[in-house]
Amino acid sequence: MRRRHLLSSLALLTPALLAPGGPALAQAALSARDRADLQRVEAYLNGLTTLRARFIQIAQNGATAQGTALIWRPGRMRFDYDPPEPLMLIANNGQFLHYDKELRQPSIVPVGSTPLGILLRDRITLSGDVTVTGLQREQGLLRVTLFRTSSPGEGRLTLVFANDPLELRQWLVVDGQGRTTRVTLSAIETGVRLDRASFDFNDPRFLRGPVDNN
Question: Where is the signal peptide (predicted)?
Answer without folding.
Answer: 1-26
